[in-house]
Amino acid sequence: MTHIRLTLMATLAAVGIFASAPASAQSSACQEGQKILVERQSIVKQVSELMGGGKKKQVDPRAACTVFGKLVTNGDAGLKWMSTNKDWCQVPDQVVQGFEQDHKRAQTFRSQACGAAAKMAAAEKRAKQQAEQGGGPRLGGGLTGTLSVPKGAL
């Protein structure tokens, strides 16, 4: 959760920096940076909602993979923009460094979420194949909830 807060703080700080720059000094490139950061704020909000907004919630890895994928794509665009326009748009080094760190964390979380989603998909596929073949696991008499009791003397 702290990575989300850090990302949000860095984003808000960067948006504040761009908004406070004199209007005559802002170019379309600086405005493009603002668009990237506003989009990032929206994605961070989606991440927060996915995580339950501070409440402990079971997260669906497939949904997390999708949202973190968007965050990483946005981070790639943001880093590219910052490397090109940092000086012209007066982006402090601390904002760039914070953005880079948050981007690395987002990449790690995306990797973990997408890995878990792939494992879930593979497990579901195996279960479906076993169910179609009739060879599913038979614990306690199968998935019917019945238990066969041996006949005869115990």
Structure, described:
There is one protein chain. This protein is mostly helical and 154 residues long. The protein has one domain (2-14, 29-124). The protein contains four helices and no strands. The chain has helices at 2-20, 28-50, 61-85, 93-133. Helix 2 runs antiparallel to helix 3 (61-85). The longest helix has 41 residues, at 93-133. It is elongated and about 90 Å long. The protein starts with a helix and ends in a 21-residue tail after the last helix. Residues 1-25 have low confidence and may be disordered.
Fold topology:
Elements (H helix, E strand, L loop, with lengths): L1 H19 L7 H23 L10 H25 L7 H41 L21
Helix pairs in contact: 1-2, 1-4, 2-3, 3-4
Short précis:
The chain has 154 residues and is an all-alpha fold.
Overall helicity: over 70%
Could you give the order of the helices and strands?
HHHH
What's the total helix number?
Answer: 4
Radius of gyration, in angstroms, nearest whole number = 24 Å
User: Which secondary-structure class do the elements indicate?
Assistant: mainly alpha
List the uncertain runs: 1-25
Summarize model confidence as the mean pLDDT. Answer: 78
